[in-house]
From TrEMBL:
It comes from Dimargaris verticillata. Residues 37-47 have a biased composition (Polar residues). Residues 1-58 are annotated as: Disordered. This is Uncharacterized protein. It holds the Pfam family DM9. Residues 17-36 have a biased composition (Low complexity). InterPro entries: DM9_repeat. PANTHER family: AGAP009604-PA, FARNESOIC ACID O-METHYL TRANSFERASE DOMAIN-CONTAINING PROTEIN.
Length: 184
């Protein structure tokens, strides 16, 4: 276990704070593991059945893992009925979009890996969910952090100087202590 790492369970039973005990091998999880998940189109705050809840607001309202194309990249963020759409951060701003894709599948097949500082999954004993990227192809990982009494969703990447960023209160916020979504 990494120093300072804790174990627990996130929303919908997805493990959180744990790390995988065995190397998953080159290429990450099997195609079967990845095939359990799909990105379902949604609009205006709608959330499809079997959506993966990744975070929550300070009042307990759920936040769901979502993504959308923006300026040539495929960016992760959050969606929820009370948000009336999808929120992501880009260029130091909070961006709202009405159309997006929600991650759906068994949350128990995912885990949250604790990270302090820059995320470097190469050679790690876990494989991040790598379904997002910058316009230039650099990977973006689905991430969350504890902030203002809730768990906010955002993005992390080895190339990000801010380590992890997330949309909150009309701004892009940064975190050095956060969790990255990975396959169990």
């Amino acid at each position: 276990m990494m120093q300072g790492q804790e174990r627990g369970y996130g929303p919908q039973g997805g493990q959180y704070g744990a790390h995988h005990q065995q190397q998953q091998g080159p290429g990450g999880p099997s195609p079967q593991a990845r095939s359990q998940f799909q990105w379902v189109p949604a609009t205006n705050g709608s959330i499809p059945p079997n959506a993966v809840q990744g975070g929550r607001e300070k009042d307990g309202k759920p936040l769901y893992i979502a993504r959308q194309w923006y300026k040539g990249g495929l960016h992760p963020g959050k969606a929820a009925p009370h948000l009336d759409g999808f929120y992501m951060c880009y260029d130091s701003k909070e961006v709202q979009l009405k159309e997006y894709f929600v991650l759906c599948g068994p949350a128990k097949a995912l885990q949250w890996i604790e990270v302090n500082g820059r995320v470097e999954p190469n050679g790690a004993l876990w494989t991040p969910v790598t379904e997002c990227h910058e316009a230039d192809g650099k990977p973006l990982y689905i991430a969350k952090t504890r902030y203002d009494g809730g768990e906010q969703l955002g993005k992390a990447g080895p190339h990000l100087d801010s380590y992890m960023c997330f949309p909150y209160g009309d701004k892009e916020r940064d975190a050095k202590h956060y969790y990255v979504l990975a396959y169990v």
